[in-house]
Amino acid sequence: MRAVSRGEWANAVQYFTAACYNYNDNEAGSCKELGVIYEYGKGGAGPQRVKKNDALSKQAYAQCCKKSGGLMRECCKKVGK
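The line above is the sequence of Beta-lactamase; the predicted structure tokens follow.
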């Protein structure tokens, strides 16, 4: 995704959030990427900064596990499933 490669983390969060929660198709990968961004925080101190947020990270990983039917084990493991 172009926003990630450019370090536009806030834009990436918007894209991954829409793909993870708003689309009916299986977007488990977008949920995983969203979880990673929130788990570690990205972007330093600039305007594209995304702060670390454990609650949002776990929520995204749970959605990843659900959408993948448990097949994305790395997501499921993050939420104890």
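Note on the example: The chain has one domain: 2-78. The radius of gyration is 12 Å.
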